[in-house]
């Protein structure tokens, strides 16, 4: 095997390694999923801010593979409103409610 063939095999191996390293796993998102989740998080935050009855600064938003997690200490009557609002946003697959009602 000459140098050119060995070099081409080396480059192919590096390319394969790069593809495998970027592949998503159940615990880690791929690049495309991360970008999608960032867009969904932005849409959710914008919708919460646009609602005049909700205090969006009290609601934390995280997204992983289309599942949106809402958390924070909020007024009890704001929880169902926030959940309903988020469920209607394009790209949201599921909503996990970790919001705690204030006393």
TrEMBL record:
Domain of life (superkingdom): Bacteria
Keyword Amino-acid biosynthesis belongs to the record: no
Pfam families on file: BON
UniProt name for this protein: BON domain-containing protein
Signal peptide: 1-23
BON domain location: 36-103
Keywords: Signal
InterPro entries, A to Z: BON_dom, Lipoprotein_DolP, Transpt-assoc_nodulatn_dom_bac
């Amino acid at each position: 095997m000459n140098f050119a063939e060995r070099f081409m095999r080396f480059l192919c191996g590096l390319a394969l390694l790069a593809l495998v390293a970027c592949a998503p796993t159940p615990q880690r998102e791929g690049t495309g999923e991360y970008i999608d989740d960032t867009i969904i998080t932005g849409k959710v935050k914008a919708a919460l801010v646009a609602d005049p009855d909700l205090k969006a600064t009290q609601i934390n938003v995280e997204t992983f593979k289309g599942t949106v997690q809402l958390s924070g200490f909020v007024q009890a009557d704001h929880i169902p409103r926030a959940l309903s609002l988020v469920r209607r946003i394009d790209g949201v697959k599921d909503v996990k409610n970790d919001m705690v009602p204030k006393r």
